[in-house]
Amino acid sequence: MSVENLKAYIESGVLELYVLGDLSPEEALQVEEIASQYPEVRDEIAAIEQAMEQYAMQNAVEPSADVETKLFEKLGIRDEDELGTISTTPIYSDSEEPKIVRLDSSDGKIRTLRFALVACVALLIISTAALFITYNKLNDAHDQIASLNLDKQKFAGVVSQLEYENKGLDNMVAMADSKEWVTIRMAGQAFSPNAKMNVYWNKKDKSVIINYVAMDLPKTDAEHEYQLWALVNGKPVSLGVFGKSDSTTNEALQKMQAIQEAQAFAVTIEPKGGSINPTMEKLTVMGGV
Amino acid sequence: MTALKKLTLTEPELVLALQSKDPAVLKTLYSMYSSALYGVISRIISHTELAEDVLQETFVKIWQSAAHYDHTKGRLFTWMMNIARNLSIDKLRSKDFKNSLKNQDIENNVSFVDEQNKVTFNPDVLGVKQLVENLKPDLQAVLNLVYYKGYTHVEAAEKLDLPLGTVKTRIRLAIIELRRSFN
């Protein structure tokens, strides 16, 4: 561009429009290009800018104070004092601090959880131990109950035995007091010298009763039992069979067959069900009336 | 820090702080230029509330688009002033503005009219006004339209029924008058 052209360009008023922002982007770009090449243009633009700036400064109008307040509120910028304090401290410390706090609090949470876990494990161990001890005690208790039960059964047996014997003894006493009853004492024979037994015979109705309490006979096996005989005029008459002397039937007394008359009574050991004739080798006791 | 707390800074300092998004610089910038920019805005938009809205929008835009400012292309104030002028002209042509003119309450009308015609005497400005008034009427008409009414030179040419070149020349002559008066 020649000097004259340059002068004409400056005087065209395009630079004023450029400063006023009244050019299209293409035109503005062109002005900037020329300005970068020609200091005269650059100086002219600077002079126009300065003039416009001074003009604006001298035509300044103070806006109301709340515009500023609203503006900084809108931009989220705080008061100058606060800005000062923030700027004097390094920016990173401001953003780092909450991070530290957050890490701390999560650390604390983990520590708390760890304590809780330890407490849980301890509680579990204690509970298991307590359960084990309780289980053992329960077993002991079961054993004790079982042994007590056994004792109880034993005592119950003893009691029933005693009752049974007591009944028998009561009967014996009653029979001894009564004038109707005759007690025949049978003594041990060659087969069993130590055996003895009583037979009670009612003179009035001729009934015969034996008392399990008042007998001591040799033991029999499962296939044999005792048979009571009456000797009537030298002949044995069966009065029935009875069980073991130690049998625990409820009744101490057992009614045998009645007999009108007899000179003696005897007991033999016979096969189960009894025999028609007594087995003399197994005559255990005998006694005369 | 102490430099930023001062209410005036040199332009390179301002630009550097503004482009590094230092919040403190916006305070400084506001205290330095808000009234000058409001002067520009309020001459284009006479409605006080709307003009103040535009002033706020102007500073928001300055803050948000600071990175786009290129100091090789011109002064910071020219850039800011053009933001203010463009936002003002946009507002003037927006529905918002037209509605606000239509919807004036009759009750508030007296104070509104008062507001519109408020005359403030700024001793600094008195000389300038006089100076502008002392411009030749044809220069004054062009400057009024372009500077005070936000007209483009093309619109001003249409309005005044003048060739574009003439409008451009008159703008230039008016500004040269201003330059002379300031020097």
TrEMBL record, chain B:
RNA polymerase sigma-70 region domain: residues covered: 29-96
Every copy of the RNA polymerase sigma factor 70 region 4 type domain together lies at 129-174
Q: Name one GO molecular function term.
A: sigma factor activity
Q: What InterPro entries does the annotation carry?
A: RNA_pol_sigma-70-like, RNA_pol_sigma-70_dom, RNA_pol_sigma70_r2, RNA_pol_sigma70_r4_t2, RNA_pol_sigma_r2, RNA_pol_sigma_r3/r4-like, WH-like_DNA-bd_sf
Which Gene3D superfamilies does this one have?
1.10.1740.10, Winged helix-like DNA-binding domain superfamily/Winged helix DNA-binding domain
Q: Which Pfam families match?
A: Sigma70_r2 (PF04542), Sigma70_r4_2 (PF08281)
GO biological-process terms attached to the record: DNA-templated transcription initiation
Signal peptide positions are: none
Record keywords: Sigma factor, Transcription, Transcription regulation
Belongs to which family?
Belongs to the sigma-70 factor family. ECF subfamily.
From the Swiss-Prot or TrEMBL record, give the protein name: RNA polymerase subunit sigma-70
Query: What organism does the record attribute this protein to?
Result: Pedobacter chinensis
